[in-house]
Amino acid sequence: MSEVRVGLIGLGTIGTGVARILLEQTELMARRLGKRVRLTAVCDRDLSHDITHHRGLDLSGVRLVHDAAKMLAADDIDIIVELIGGYEPARSLVVEAIGHGKHIVTANKALIAKHGEELFTLAAQHGTAIGFEAAIGGGIPCLKALREGLAANAITSVHGILNGTCNYILTRMEDEGADYHDVLRDAQTLGYAEADPTFDVEGVDTAHKLAILGAMAFGSTIDFASVHTEGIAAITPDDIASASELGFRIKLLGIAKPHGDGVEMRVHPTLVPIESQIAQVSDSYNAVLISGDFVENTMYYGRGAGERPTASAVVADILDIARALPDGIAHLAPPMGFPAAHRLNLATTPIAEVECEYFLRLMVQDEPGSIAAITQILADHRISLEAVIQKARHQTQAVPIVLLTHQTREGNLNTAISRIAALESVQGEAMILRIERFGA
Ligand code: HSE
User: Fold this and answer.
1) pTM given for the model
2) How many domains does the chain have?
């Protein structure tokens, strides 16, 4: 049987899972491919026996390397798997490996979101493949579905719960009234969170993933910098409870949809109807809802983070490339689903142009006429209301008022909100959350 050889850089959570699959599933992989996939080298700063033994890995027979630069040109490696994460040195290592004709598999969403276009161009010049299924949705094969399975469709929208850490935090805050910081610590212990968890909770990780998904959906170039990004840190248990009373659950969504000649690309906490499928996605699970003009709604669901699910997606990419070798990768789908010459530069719609229904929470002095003053300003801006709820009564302190609006342009809402914020009875900043209804 012929053999395809893999070099793995980064033996952290995901790298451990990849090594485990490559060492334990050898017969299954050989049956699927009719050729063997062999882990020939592993690189990490700490490859002591204690560490690898503790993780249950038997790396005897695998070359152990401490300096990644030494693997990039190695003759006994066909595919380099980059699992160190972050922008650098990942980018430089991948650029050099492609220069040596190596195929690349990575789980690094930050790398692809920011430097993907450069890497795809370079890889095309060298006739090498780049697989990044594991960058989005952990173990869910959503890129394969979008790129290949849905190729007959013009995509009409993408909605994703793309960050396991945030979904885990929001779920536990809703179910147990748990404290945000305690739950974030648990997510770190469970291996869901990024090395810097602010990337998770501020929505940056979701924005990395959405930038890639949206570009693939609409055949456009990746434009991470233009994704409107908000995180979950300001969401309070009271907001979650108010949303629930009104028939909604709060999820951090990545949303991509056409808008005029451009495309909306936005990441923010979103109210979704409690009966919707996406509202049922809890804990660290991810889901991607992709709609196409012929297929209609499709949803992909599974574990979005963690060692074994993410490693499953990494190895699927390894197998795709291994199947194509040694003849070359001409028959693999282009990394972003469209040949480079047919990709567009779609402009991202400014958030002020987006139209949504909104959930507003204001802190208001409980005195006669204060709600009337607020609703008058909204009426002046032709923003109609679906619901108004005063959450408590207090003679001296401000109380939360929750309003649900009908559809309006965000720029219009913001003008109204700045007038409302200037009212004497209104205190602090308004919490503004967008509402999405699926297929409505
Ligand atoms: N930190 C990410 C998450 C890991 O929580 O989803 C998977 O990309």
Assistant:
1) 0.96
2) 3
